[in-house]
Write a sequence for this structure.
């Protein structure tokens, strides 16, 4: 069984300093706290129960996601928890429901537990920064880095939007509608739409203004009748796969087939899209590996004082049966 003395020896400090660093009950530098915590994690140290019956405080990190029910964020969260378990950290979870105001309250709640660091998926890092307090080491997940948040793990959402639109144009589609959750709630959706607009314009085609809807609670009630009448699209791009499923349901309620009448494609690559008949055409994002990368980057920053970095991961077009050539 690993002892506190072994942790102190690994960290290069006294037994008293190691105790203060792990329990946050005395004067000790942030650098030494990180060294001691890393040593404890590497050695698998677990504090013994003292006479008072209370365990020493286990280091934790905080994770903010937009929605726990979205498979994209659930996959990332699972990888974060697995990585932190190995490092001896607990994981606190909060969700924003794609609401910038609730986002700030959720982060404040995470900070009450004095986390070692934070992994945040925010609505928009440019606007969220003004609402957030001073933060411990922080890594953005799925958001592009900013001057205030230079550490991030992202996929190229703009490039993914371009690639999906290019594929549809190559298949003969010219009237392509983009259906999205509110851009104010997701800069990821906005980047995907910007990729669509740029590609349409590059081919001399007129991009259609995005149809924006709430991210929460309306996918199964989506009404496309007005958009279908106004634009007569031959293809619809949804800003994520869950919304793509809602689009397919709305088209079927209008008596239209997919892809016979209208082609549909999405983003994320969630498993349920592969189980559909026909399987969903989508841009697959490596959500699990992104979560693991964000966790490793945060640990490196918090425990080793490593510099903030921007890590970009590759996406992949997965052709299914919901898109056809015309």
């Amino acid at each position: 069984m690993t002892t506190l003395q072994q942790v102190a020896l690994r960290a290069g400090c006294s037994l008293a300093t190691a105790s203060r660093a792990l329990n946050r009950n005395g004067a000790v530098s942030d650098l030494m706290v990180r060294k001691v915590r890393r040593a404890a994690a590497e050695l698998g140290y677990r504090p013994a129960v003292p006479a008072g019956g209370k365990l020493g405080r286990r280091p934790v990190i905080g994770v903010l996601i937009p929605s726990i029910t979205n498979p994209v964020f659930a996959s990332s969260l699972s990888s974060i928890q697995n990585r932190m378990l190995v490092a001896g950290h607990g994981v606190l979870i909060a969700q924003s429901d794609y609401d910038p105001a609730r986002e700030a309250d959720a982060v404040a709640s995470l900070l009450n537990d004095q986390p070692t660091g934070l992994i945040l998926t925010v609505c928009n890092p440019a606007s969220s920064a003004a609402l957030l307090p001073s933060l411990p080491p922080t890594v953005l997940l799925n958001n592009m880095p900013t001057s205030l948040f230079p550490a991030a793990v992202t996929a190229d959402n703009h490039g993914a939007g371009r690639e999906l639109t290019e594929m549809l144009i190559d298949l003969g589609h010219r009237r392509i509608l983009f259906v999205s959750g509110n851009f104010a709630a997701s800069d990821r959706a906005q980047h995907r739409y910007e990729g669509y607009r740029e590609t349409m314009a590059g081919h001399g085609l007129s991009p259609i203004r995005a149809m924006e809807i709430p991210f929460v609670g309306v996918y199964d009630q989506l009404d496309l009748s007005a958009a279908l009448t106004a634009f007569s699209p031959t293809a619809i791009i949804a800003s994520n796969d869950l919304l793509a499923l809602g689009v397919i349901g709305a088209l079927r309620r209008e008596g239209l087939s997919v892809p016979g009448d209208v082609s549909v494609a999405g983003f994320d690559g969630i498993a349920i899209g592969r189980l559909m008949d026909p399987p969903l055409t989508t841009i697959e994002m490596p959500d699990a590996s992104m979560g693991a990368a964000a966790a490793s980057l945060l640990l490196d920053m918090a425990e080793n004082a490593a510099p903030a970095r921007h890590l970009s991961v590759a996406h992949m077009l997965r052709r299914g049966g919901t898109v056809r050539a015309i």
Notes: Residues 287-304 form the longest helix (18 residues). Residues 49-55 have pLDDT under 50 and may be disordered. The chain has twelve helices and twelve strands. The radius of gyration is 23 Å.
